[in-house]
Specification:
Layout: H1 8-13, E1 21-24, E2 28-32, E3 40-46, H2 53-59, H3 62-78, E4 87-89, E5 105-109
Bound molecules: adenosine monophosphate.
Length: about 110
């Protein structure tokens, strides 16, 4: 499967579709999941077009991966979840339950 530039998260990134933004820097955008499964349910997406977590881990360069995970850590700190607790999930592929084919992390917490 190739990356589809018309996917919903690509449209959120280019401003075609609105989102409830929580955090943004040069590497990531984070916004509230439209159908929350916990008290806090955010999505974190890279600004670069990766299909899924495997594409990201295999093809993103080391510096971009570092900046991505540092951004995840910063979002967790901003939300004050470091001490309270959270889950991170990423669905990969149709058999993994992935619906939107732009790599994203789910951050869930009942804090
Ligand atoms: P998955 O690809 O399985 O990780 O699921 C995609 C997630 O994106 C689901 O939890 C949806 O509720 C969420 N979602 C879909 N469209 C939007 C949107 N426009 N804004 C925020 N979240 C969305």
């Amino acid at each position: 499967m190739n990356y589809d530039k018309e996917n919903i998260f690509a449209k959120i990134l280019n401003g075609e579709i609105p989102c409830e933004k929580v955090f943004e820097n040069d590497y990531v955008l984070s916004f509230k999941d439209i159908n929350p499964k916990a008290k806090i349910h955010l999505l974190i997406i890279p600004k670069e077009p990766f299909l899924d977590i495997s594409d990201f881990l295999h093809n993103a360069d080391t510096l971009y991966q570092t900046n991505f995970w540092k951004s995840v850590d910063e979002i967790i700190a901003v939300l004050e979840l470091r001490d309270k607790g959270f889950q991170i999930k990423s669905h990969k592929g149709k058999d993994g339950g992935q619906e939107v084919f732009h790599f994203h992390l789910h951050i869930l917490s009942d804090a």
